[in-house]
Sequence to fold (343 residues):
Amino acid sequence: MTPRSQEFLALSIGISYAQLNRMTTQAVYRDRIAAQNDSLMHVAEDVAGMTVVMVNLYFVGEPGSSDWVLIDAGLPLNAGRIRAAAKRRFGSGAKPKAIILTHGHFDHVGSLRALAEEWDVPIYAHELELPYLTGRSDYPPPDPGVGGGIFASTSFIYPRGAYDFRPRIQALPSDGTVPHMPGWRWIHTPGHSPGHVSFFREHDRVLIAGDAFTTQKQESFWGVMTQHQHVHGPPMYFTIDWEAARHSVQALARLQPSVAATGHGIPMSGEAMRVQLIALALHFEALGMPSDGRYVREAVQADRNGVEHIPPTTVRSEMPKIIAGIAIVALSAGIIASMRRRD
Fold:
């Protein structure tokens, strides 16, 4: 990308050219460090995370073991990268006992079909998430008017259609145990999606929180690029029940985790994480949710068959953000096309 093209890109997302250069340098440095560490983030001796573009997935199992599971499956077209990471961690021919989902949004199941079919393994999710994973119901539309960042304002282009992972997909056990993960339990943490779950291990207080909360500001291009660590609420644009989301964060804060591995952001541990998580739980309205929005005014209603009722949108209030998002996408596409012509 030429300096001129970089400047246009910086302007299109509302930052300065100097900021873009600094962010790009930070991202390249972070990517090099990740490559040196096999692209895995340490969570616990038997838990490692992998970032796929902007979302995390987790390997649970001792390195070199044949007894391990995969939590979530990242974005599409990344099955090869995920298999390669599994091979490095668990050995040649490694395949999990199962793939277990925190929820079924597109960035958490993008490579799921390819991985499950090649590995020939079962998939587990909460029963309230199954309608969206068995072809019965689409997810509710996102709310582009919340969050105040590029990933929020362009969220209307993100896939939300139903997936169909039958016959591999099945419900998590109702007793809270997690298949092939002894010592762990799943906790229903709805709000971001109806059947969202988190995973917790009591003896060392390791928490895999999915998108119940994050450790970066996911709505923001700056937050995603720099991965500045800070306990933050769930990604706003896809959260459909804010009262449920608040209760979920409070339930996870009461666990007093030693380390929090989230769907977006670098895992956090120690006192700083616990203090920030407690603050988020106590002051969720101020710190974790938008002041207004489609699903702030009224939550989506859903049951075991999928979405029952979607609140009406206030077009007037959301249209400026949507128009801005369209303009950003169009401008970015034009820049990329121009660069390709020059090449």
Observations:
- The chain is about 40% helix and 15% strand.
